[in-house]
Amino acid sequence: MDISHVDKICKDHGNRQDQLIGILQDVQAQYRYLPQKPLERVSELLGIPIAQVFSVATFFRAFSLEPRGKNVCQVCMGTACHVRGAQRLLEEIERGFGIVAGQTTKDANVTLETVNCVGACALGPVIVVNEEYHGRMDGTKTAKLIEDLKTKGE
Amino acid sequence: MTQILKTGKELDALREKLKKQRESVKQTITICGGTGCHGYGCQKVIDAFRQELASRKLEKEVELRVSGCHGFCERGPLALLAPSGIFYQRIDVADVPAIIEKTVMKGELIDKLLYVLEDGKKAAHEKEVPFYARQNRLVFANNQRINADSIEDYIAVGGYAALPKALAMKPEAVIDEVKKAGLRGRGGGGFPTGRKWETVRKAQPGEKRYVICNADEGDPGAYMDRSLLEGNPHSVIEGMVIGAYAIGANEGYIYVRNEYPLAVKNARIALDKAREMGLIGKNILGSGFDFDIIISRGGGAFVCGESTALMASLEGKIGEPRAKYIHTAEYGLWNKPSCLNNVETWANVPMIINNGSEWYSKIGTATSKGTKIFSVVGKIKNTGLVEVPMGVKLREIIFDMGGGIPNGKKFKAVQTGGPSGGCIPESLLDLPVDFDELTKAGSMMGSGGLIVMDENTCMVDIARYFTEFLSEESCGKCVPCREGVRHMLEILNRICKGEGKAGDVELLEEMSEAITDASLCALGGTAPNPVLSTIRYFRNEYDAHILEKRCPAGACKALINYSVIDKNCTGCTACARVCPTQAAVATDKPAQGAIKGKVNPKLKMHKIIDEKCIRCNMCFEACKYDAVQIK
Amino acid sequence: MSKITITIDGEKVEATAGEMLMDVCRRKGIFIPTLCDHKDLMPYGVCRICIVEWDRGDWSKMITSCNFPVKEGQVFRTNSEKVIRERKMIMEFTLARSSKTPEIIELAKILGVESSRFPTQDEGCILCGMCIRACSEVVEANAIGFAQRGSHRKISSPFYHEATDCIGCGSCSYICPTKYIEMKEDADTRTLPIWNVTFEMAKCKKCGQKIAPKKQIEFLKKRAKNLPEGWFDLCQNCR
Q1: DSSP 8-state assignment for residue B266
Q2: Which of A53, A55, A65 lies at the smallest CB-CB distance from C146?
Q3: Is the same domain home to B320 and B175?
Q4: Beta carbons of A51 and C149 less than 8 Å apart
Q5: How far is A113 from chain B, CA to nearest CA, in Å?
Q6: How confident is the model at residue B491 (pLDDT cuts 50, 70, 90)?
Q7: B56: distance to nearest CA of chain A, Å?
Q8: What is the CATH number of the domain that holds B477?
Q9: Where are the domains of chain C?
Q10: pLDDT tens for each residue of B434-453
Q11: What is the pTM of this model?
Q12: CA A72 – CA A68 distance, rounded (Å)
C-alpha cells in the first residue's frame, strides 16, 4: 500500500493536531476507508498516540475501518424523513442487496449507510447515492434505484 | 486584482463603487442554489440560464446570480427577478427560454411558474405568498441578494460595515452593546451571548483565547445553520471577527459538519477572500487587531454539538464531553478561555452593531430578543426555513406560513428542539415561541427545528425513534446515558412490538429522573424529553399499545395488518406486481371495483396473505383505487 | 488556597476552595460510593454513583462529588431521598451490565439493590476507564484507549491487535476495580491477553529474580536520567 499520500494530506493540514478529523476524512477519501498503515503514519506525523488515532477513527460515524464499496448509498434517517417513511425504504434496500445498514455487498459494489439528516428535509425521504440527492423517494423509485445500482456493479 | 483594504474608509469607498456597479446592471435573475434546490436539479436550470443568456448575448445586461437558500424549499427550484420582483417556482430546464424571452425581455408573466394561492389566484411576488409575507427576515434576508461565493456582493449590500464600527469601539463597549441587545445563543441553550463574551474576556488574563463557531448542526430536521453558512458565510465571519475583537482572541475555528459539503466549500472560499482583502488576518483595517479563522470538519457525531465534546474533538480526541463545573468560557479549548457560539448567533452580531442594541431589543419578547430561523419540516405543506420575531405563535408558523397539513390529514403534534426537545400537542399551539415558553411546555427551542406530525404519526414510535437516535449518538462515557437510554429504547421497542407490560410507562418515568439528573452532559440530561413529553401529552397512545396491543396511528408494523377492501379492488394486479414476498395474490373471485366506471369481472379480486406480509407498504403505495387498507 | 466553610448534611465543614467534594466527604468519614474515582488519577466522573444533591435554596441540582470543586458557603445533601433513589437506579444500570461481577454485586447490595429490572449481561468491564487513564496519566505510555461509542464502547488496543506501545508495566491490571484485566506470568514472560502482548522479563543480575519487562525498563531508562549506572540491572531488594 502506497502511504505517501498521507504525508501530503498531513502537510496540507499543516501537520496540526486540531486537524485530525479533517486529515482522517481526506485519508478515507484517498483509500475509501482507513487502513492501518496510513493511520500509523498519521499518528507519527502529528505526534498523536496510535491508540488515540484509533479511538477517534472508531468514534465518529464518518469513518470506516473496513473497505467501502464502489458506490455509497446513504439513507437519510432524519426526523422529517422518518415521519415520511424512511425506515421502510431502508428495509427495502436492505432486502434488495441482502445486507443491513453499515455493510458492503460481497462484490464490493455497494456500501449501505444511514445518515442522521442531510438537511434536505423538503425532499424527504432522501437517499444519497455517491453524493447525489434522490428526493421524494417512495417504494417504486427506490426499487428503480436498487436496480440501477446493481447494474453499475456488473 | 483584489484590493487590500487598510482602513474603514477604503472599505466604504469600495462599497460605494460596488453599489454603483450593481445598480448599473439592468436586470438580475437570482437562482436559489441551496442544497434543497440542488436536490431538485437546479444546477441544470442554472446551466440552461447561462447558455440562454450567452446565446442571446444578454450576459452584460442580465446578471445571473446563484445565491444560497431562499427558504421556500418546498417549491424549488426558485428564481427571483429584479428589479421586477417576479418570483417563479418549480422551474424546469424547459422553462428557461420562455423566462428569458417573455419575462426578461418583454416583462410578461408566465402563469404556470407562479405560486398558486389558496383561493386559486396567482402570486407574482414573494410578498404576496403567505410563506414569505409573514416573515421578518433580518438574518436571512441577504441570502437571496448575493452570490453565495462573492465577498463583493456582501460588501455591496452593506456587509462588513459593522466591522470598522466595532473596531473603533472599546472591546468592553462591544460586549456591552451585545448584552444590552439581549442576544441569546441560538444553538439550543439560550445563554446570554454578551455575558458569555464578558466571562471569556475576563478569564485567565494575559492568556491566549479562542472563538469557535459551532456549525456542527446535528439536530435532525434543522438546517438553518447550513443554509446561512452556505448562502451568506461572510455574515458569520463578520460576527466572529467582532466577537474575537471583543473578547481579545486572535484565533478562531469554524467547526462544520462534513455532511454539508457546500457549506464547507463556501465557507472556505469566503475565508480566503476575506483574508485576501485584509478583513481577517493581520492588522485588520489598520486597527492593529489580528484574527484568523480556520475550518475544522466534524466526523459525524451529534454529541459534538455539545461545547466540551466539540472542543475535545478539535484537540484531536474523541468527542467526549466533560463536566462543566468549570466553564469552557474559562477553561475551554486547550484549557484556554473559549467562546463558542453557533452559526445563527454569530450572524446576528453585525446587525446589532450596525443598528444598535436599542433597535435590536425592540424585536421579540421580554426575555427572548430578535428573530429566530425555524425549519418547518415533516408532514407540512410548505417545507422550508422561516425567520420570525421571537414570540410568534406556533400556530402561525405551522398553519399560516407552513400552510398546514397536506392531504387533508389532521395535525397531531409538533416536535421542537430536536432529540433533546419534546412534542407539543394542538392544545398548546398558541404558545408564543421563545426560549422560556417552550421549556415550560416540556420542550425546548433547540436550534429551531419544527417537525410537524399528522394523525398517521405514532407518538410512541416517535419517542422510540428519538431514543434510538440518542442511544446511537451517546458517546458512551457515562452510565446513565450509555446504559439507561439503551434500556429505555429496549422498553420502547417492546411496546411498539406489542410486547409492552403494565408498569412500563411508570418505569420509563422512573428511569428518566435518574438519567435527566445524573447524566454527564446535556445529551444524556435531555435524552428522556421525547419520552416524557409524549407520555405527558399522548399517554392514550402508550396505553393503546400496551393494553390493547393496538397502534392508533397505524404506524407500528407489528401492530398493523394490511388487507384488501373487496368492493374497491379492481383486479388491476398492481399490488401483486410490487409485493416483494408474494403476499398480495389474486383470488378466484371476480373483481368488484370499477376502473374508469367499469367493473371487469374477468379480472380477479386480490387479497393479502397476512403470514407472508412484511408490512413494506408497497401495495398500499401502488394501489390507485384505495383498495388496500391498514388496520 | 483559601480555607472555606461548606455545609454537608446539615453540618458545617472546613475545606479548601477548589477541593473536590468527594475528598472533603472522605475526610469527614461520609460514605460516597464510587466506581471510577482513584486517588492517583484525575477525576473522570463517569460512573455517576457518587452523585449528591447541591442545595441552591429554592431549588437543587444533582452533581457528581468526585469532580465538583467546592466554593465558600455551598450546601450539599449526600443522603437525601432523591440521592438514594437515583443512586439505586444508576446502580441498577451498572448491575444489569455486569450482573456477575462480585465487586458490582457487593456495592449494589450496600446501596440496597438486590437485582436489576433490566435485561442482564455479564460484562466484566464497567468502562470506568481507569486502565486507560493510568496508562496515559501515570505511565504516559498511551498504549490503549476506548473504541467505538455509545453502548458499543469498549476498552481496546489499537486495531484490536497487539498494543504496540504497551510496555507491560501492568498498571492497567493493578488498577482495574473489577479484576477484568488479567495479567499472567511464568518464569520468563508476562502476558496481558486483553492487549495481545507478551513481554520478556528482565532479571536481577545478582539474585536472578524477575524485575520487570525488558521493554518497560527501556522505557524507564529514557525518562529517568539521574539514576546511577546499572540501577535497572538489580531488583528492589538487591539495590
Answers
A1: H
A2: A55
A3: yes
A4: no
A5: 13
A6: very high
A7: 32
A8: 1.20.1440.230
A9: 3-110, 130-233
A10: 888 888 887 888 889 999 99
A11: 0.94
A12: 8
Mean predicted lDDT score pLDDT of chain B:
94
For C149, nearest residue in chain A (alpha carbons) = A59
What CATH number is associated with residue B163? 3.40.50.11540
* Cα distances (angstroms) measured from residue B163 to each of B180, B192, B237, B243: 18, 21, 10, 10
- Count how many Cα atoms sit within 13 Å of the Cα of residue B12 in the half-sphere of its side chain: 6
Inter-chain touch A54–C147, beta carbons under 8 Å = yes
The residues near C187 (Cβ < 8 Å, ≥ 6 apart) are none
In a domain, B474, yes or no: yes
Which residue segment(s) compose the domain that B81 sits in? 23-135
Dihedral sign, Cα of residue B316, residue B318, residue B321, residue B326: negative
Residue B377's pLDDT band (boundaries 50, 70, 90)? Answer: very high
Number of domains in chain B: 5
Test A79 with B449 for CB contact under 8 angstroms: yes
Least CB–CB distance from C145: residue in A36, A51, A65 = A51
Please indicate, yes or no, whether residues B184 and B327 belong to a single structural domain of this protein.
yes
- The reported pLDDT for the residue numbered B352 is 97
Which of the residue ranges B63-67, B215-219, B467-471 would you say has the lowest mean pLDDT?
B215-219
- Residues of chain C whose pLDDT is less than 70? 1
Tell me which CATH code domain C3-110 carries: 3.10.20.740
Do residue B260 and residue A133 have CB atoms under 8 angstroms apart? no
**What count of CB pairs under 8 Å joins B to C?**
93
Shortest Cα–Cα distance, C20 to chain B (Å) = 11
Inter-chain contact B318–A55, Cβ cutoff 8 Å? yes
CB proximity B73 to A under 8 Å: yes
Q: What is the pairing mode between strands C189-192 and C197-203?
A: antiparallel
- Closest chain B residue by Cα to residue A86: B616
What's the CA dihedral at C205, C209, C211, C215 to 10 degrees? 70
